[in-house]
Amino acid sequence: MAGSKRSSDAATELSAGAAEADKQAKKLKRSGKKKGEAEKGEGAAKSVTSMERRKKRKELDKLKHRSEDGAAVAKRIFNDANEGVVEAADGSAPQLHIRVFKDLAAADGGVREAAAEQLVNELVEIQKAYEEGGGVEPGQNGSILEAQKDDGLDSCAPSVRYAVRRLIRGVSSSRECARQGFALGLAVVVRSVTKIDIGALLKLIVSLLEVTSSMKGQEARDCYLGRLFAYGAIAGSGRLVQEWNNDNDTPYIKEFVVTVVSLAGKKQYLQEPSAKVILELANKLPVQAVVDHVVEAERLREWFDGAPEAGNPDALLLALKLRERIDVDSQAFGRLLPHPFSSAALFSGSHLPALVHCLKESTFCQPRVHSVWPVLMNTLIPDGLLQDGCGALVNSAKKHKKSRKAASPEDDLTKSIHSFFEVVIEGSLLQSSHDRKHLALDVVLLLLKRAPAASIPVVLSYKLVQCLTDVLSTKDTWLHKVALHFLKELGNCVASDDEKRVAIIIALQKHSGGRFDSTTRTHTVKDLMAGFQTEAGYDVFSENLKKLFLDEEQSSEEPSDQSQTTDDNSEIGSVEGKDSDGIYGNGDALKSWVIESLPSVIKHLKLDPDARFRVQQDVMKFLAVQGLFSASLGTEVTSFDLQEKFRWPKIATSIALCRMCIEQLQSLFAYTQKSESLVTPASLEHSDLPSYFMHFLATLRGIPSVSLFRNLDDEEEQVLKDIQATMAKLFKKEREIVFDSATDPDLKPKADRLHAMRYVLIQMVLQEFLQPDQYLEPAGELVICCEKELLLKDDETPEFTDVLVDTLLSLLPQSSASMRFTIEQVFKYFCIDVNSATLLRMLRVIKEGLTRRRVQNAEDDEDEDDDLFDLEEAEEGDEAESDDNENDEAESDGQTDDSEPAGEPAVAAKEQAEDSEDDSDEGMDDDQMFNMDKYLVQIFREKRNQAGGGDSTQAQLNLFKLRVLSLLEIFLQQNTERPEVLTVYSHLAQAFVHPQIAEGNQQLGQRIWSILQKRILKAKNGPGPKDCELDTLEPLLERNLKLASKPFKKKKSAANPSKKKQSASWNRHKMITSLARDSTFWILKLIDGRNLPEDKLQKVFEIFQNTLVEYFDSKKCQLKSDFLKEIFRRRPWVGHHVFGFLLEKCSGAKSEFRRVEALDLVTEVLKSLVSSNSEKENTDSSKKILKRHLSKISHLIAELIANMPEKQSRRADVRKFCTKVFQMVSAHSLNKPFLKELTQEAQNAIESQLGDSFLSLKKEGYTRTE
Questions:
Q1: Which pLDDT band, with edges at 50, 70 and 90, does 1229 fall under?
Q2: Cα dihedral across residues 1210, 1212, 1217, 1222: positive or negative
Q3: CA within 20 to 30 Å of 1253's CA: 24, 186, 282, 1136, which one?
């Protein structure tokens, strides 16, 4: 048997190691082999010594292989003739090196090629010598190379016959790259040694690599793969082409094809490579040979005939490639290919069902895509068609479709793609298993890389997009990762093709109702939209979005209640009802995405100013036309002034969509204002978006057949006219100032003010259409402010700033993000003129609703934090003290000061909540509500909150406070050196430490904390020394020190608080303590900056003395010595003046811990004395200070030594402190006075505790005395 022969040959070869020989012997004994074979195995086992040496040499050779390059290894192969050589009788005879077979299995491709070249050269020389010697191989003496006589290679030399057998067995080995190397060797040997008979070779392959019933899985697999590689070597050798050239009727080609097809039927994994072997042969043969010998092979025809029923994709692959090769029609392909053949016939709806089974079975090779699919895609969309610009042809062909009588190639392509997707993708793969869905996505990617943009709507069909959304909505399946990979590759397919990008975006959004990203929880559409960077790309995108918005078919699918017109009768209906049926319906959801997408794509464009203005202008016109206007006659209107045609959908746009267009217009203007560069005369003249918008608005209103989407009353009309007139004046004035600012830069702030006011007026115009009742009065006040600004001279200070700020504050509660940005810009340019009274009104908004509790627990003073910063009691004495509810307090504030807007949003929200009687969410629990559309959920939440009352009021008040805080931050950023910074600090600090901030206003607390830290405490500049009154700073300093010393206490009401609440309370306590410390450092910096004499700072010193008293005497004090130490380090003058007091308190401290801890404070003051008086002229003053406190220092040391701590660490701290004091005393030559202050008993105690350091001090004192 073949297995026995291989085992015998392997045992006789000298290249095997000792371990392998021993293993082979044991295997032969167990299997009951013949005695002679067992003896051979035993003989091989006896030669262990020689085998070990050979094994060591092989290991060294492997190391050489790793270090040498391919050329060096090839050179060694040819020069190596000392090992494994078949010696001949005549030294000049050609020889075959056995080692070359091992090199054929090397991992290095260069080594394999060199070995194959050496092998074929040696065999050619041996065969030549064999033929010249009359059938006798020179040097052949019946050795192991003697081949069997029944292998059919009678015309070949024994060495050639042995090499062929060895090569055939080698292709079945799985060691390293044996299959590749031995197949290469077999190919070059078969091509070069023409005496090898092809028929005999085919039989020898089957004989040597026969699969028997006793073989297990891996062994059988090796034999099958060996035969496959052997047949591939024959096909690649070109011998069959030579055979056909010699004899056109040669039987070997058909025999070879039949043999390969027979092998393909053994296992499924052999079918595709077998087909490729046949294709490799067909590509080498002439066309006629392929027609006569390959296509007409009997087994191949049977393979083709049974492929549709068996589901054989490899037969389809072979049929397609052979048909492409011969380019003639043939009945041999059976039902796989249409007859006559054409691409349109292949992908027709009548023929594709016959191929579905074949294509479905191609999933066996996943995750790799079967080779039949790229061939099909190339057949569907040939490369030549792509190079000719198929996409452009298809687009142009669609425009003239009605004028053509016959179908064009472009129409055939679109029809073929549609049929392919309808039958194969949608009708078969997407309706099957996960594996086939995976295959469908891979095929779609292949097609998207080749398909023109016009075919993408067919490729990304509704069913495919729904499949993607279903898969991506659940993360529990492995198909989820496949879908994510599909989306990633989808973006790579359109890297530089904007038309494809647009088509993909439109298809995804159109088939998902405009919610692809939200449904799939990805950023696919968003990332695709971010890829537009040029104006041309935007134009394509904009054109398609506008067509989608105006699409009649899309509009006809909307519910009938959306087809309301915007005439006088229809506009009176409920806006909320139209919202629920409009923007949140299926049709309007897609239109809402269109409205949101047009402005957002501008952010990613990289354009010059002129191109950017054209894009902004285009977006503005679309949003204004669709949001502000409607056509009373037809759906198209032409403006001769603008030289442009405007269109509307046939079904009137809902109120909700109109409102969304207006909101997006506001966002567009806000983004334009944010992204504007330096304003120049040229930009004002040619690219000023606000002035163009006002001109555009007036022009469209002048067209008789165009009307606003809602009618304006007389008051609204008058306000609109006033704004238009004021805008024109502002624009004219700004342009004049910009021209003059080229020579006078001081005029630029004036131009910035006018520019910001123009934008806020634009926002007011748009807001008037959204909320006319709330914005008419503020709009009129803003117009008045603008008029006064125009009348101001360059050096005058505006007197209307308080009115302007109050107006801006009144706009904040219900304003959008765009309106808030514009308000902040106006406040930025006017805040320099804000007076103290206006600033206090803004600060009282922050403190609004922070009530003070009347009844407090005597033991729990946690609610007193808000009193620590209450510095403005005199200014706020008119505030109401009613604590019944927050609304009463807000109302009392409003009665006291009519100009204060602080209570207005809270009162308005409260009244709105009390008057609200909407029961639209009755009978609906939370689960049912959250299952609805997210927009409806938001509406019902607001209604329910309004019905609830207090929660909604407090939420609105907090939101209003956050917006006012943004204005305060701008004020602090623009006015860092004004004295009002102290006022802002005191109010914000008082609001931050209030307990209500911790209970439900964490976001507000974080915002206040951020402003205090960034804009005040850690700002580079601060209030000037002359602006900071000491009477104001001293109370602040005292209260911050008290706040820093407050202990952390749990609330009495919380018997068992959760860990989360405990952690939150502890974190807040740390933030308050940190604020107090930073504030102390900041206040001391302001005090230090005034350079006041000592007699003016007595109150400051008293504050620190009281702090030290509390630090030493109170167990509840939480002041850290590091905090006080840092104060003494930063402001040494504080430590110098409290030094004596500190020594006294430290000596008399009741707590051992406090006493030892305070030694660091004393050390820090002593260090500052030395460092600040290091110069020679100041040495005397330093010595005087030390001498003045020498008795207290000595008393402190005596107390420390007399009451030595028990803990070792504290004893070490005491010794360290005493040693430092001794060194400082010695440095200032105060040894003798210091010793005089110590009693003899104290000296003895110190000497016993400190030893050498004190003796050294005494010795130096006596020496200096002498």
A1: confident
A2: positive
A3: 1136
Q: Is the pLDDT of residue 319 over 60?
A: yes
Distance, CA of 195 to CA of 364 (rounded, Å)? 41
The whole-number average pLDDT for the span 1077-1101 is 90
Please count the other Cβ atoms lying within 10 Å of the Cβ belonging to residue 481.
12
Q: Which CATH number fits domain 342-383+413-531: 3.90.1010, 2.40.360, 1.25.10, 3.30.70?
A: 1.25.10
Q: What residues contact 151, with CB distance under 8 A and at least 6 apart?
A: 161, 165, 200, 204
Catalogue the E-assigned strands of 469-547.
Answer: none
pLDDT of residue 710 exceeding 50: yes
pLDDT at 583: 37
Q: DSSP string of 932-947? A: S-HHHHHHHHHHHHHH
Residue (of 517, 515, 505) closest to 545 by Cα position: 505
Residue 566 has pLDDT above 90, yes or no: no
The DSSP letter of residue 69 is: -
Domain boundaries, the chain: 98-134+150-335, 342-383+413-531, 710-833, 835-848+950-1018, 1024-1029+1038-1049+1058-1169, 1181-1265
Q: How far is CA 173 from the centre of its chain?
A: 48
How far is it, in rounded angstroms, from Cα 131 to Cα 157? 8
Instruction: Give the pLDDT of residue 503.
Output: 93
Arch. (CATH architecture) of 98-134+150-335:
Alpha Horseshoe (1.25)
pLDDT of 522 > 50? The answer is: yes
Q: Is the peptide bond before 273 cis (omega within 30 degrees of 0)?
A: no
How confident is the model at residue 403, as a pLDDT? 42
Q: Which of 473, 489, 370, 481 lies closest to 434, judged by CA?
A: 481
CA distance 77 to 625: 83
- Cα–Cα distance, 288 to 300 (Å, whole number): 17
**Phi and psi (nearest 5°) for 97?**
-85, 120
Q: How many CB atoms lie within 10 A of CB 50?
A: 11
Closest CA to 851 of 887, 821, 894, 819: 887
Q: Give the rounded distance of the alpha carbon of 715 from its chain centre.
A: 50
Give the sign of the dihedral formed by CA 202, CA 205, CA 208, CA 212: negative
Q: How far is CA 811 from CA 60, 754, 891, 1142, in A?
A: 87, 19, 19, 56
> Is the pLDDT score of 384 beyond 90?
no
Contact 515, 468 (CB under 8 A): no
pLDDT digit string, tens, across residues 1167-1182 = 887 765 445 555 677 7
CB 990 within 8 A of CB 847: yes
Give the separation between CA 1188 and CA 1172, rounded to whole angstroms: 17
Q: What is the pLDDT of residues 254-269, one digit of tens each?
A: 999 999 999 998 888 8
Q: How many CB atoms lie within 10 A of CB 610?
A: 12
Average pLDDT of 954-983?
Answer: 91
Tokens of 1030: 């000491």
Cα 647 → chain centroid: 39
Helix (H, G, I), strand (E, B), or coil: what is residue 796? coil
Q: What is the pLDDT of residues 882-907, one digit of tens each?
A: 333 333 333 333 333 333 333 333 33
425 with 443: CB under 8 angstroms?
A: yes
CB-CB contact of 370 with 272 (8 Å): yes
Please return the burial class of 828, using the count of CB atoms within 10 Å of its CB with bins 0-12, 13-18 and 19+: middle
Return all residues near 1074 (Cβ < 8 A) that are at least 6 apart.
none
pLDDT band at 1013 (very low <50, low <70, confident <90, very high): very high
Query: In whole angstroms, what is the distance from residue 508 CA to residue 528 CA?
Result: 11
Beta-strand pair 629-631/706-708: antiparallel
CA distance 10 to 24: 9
| pTM across the whole model | 0.74
Share of the chain above pLDDT 70, in %: 75
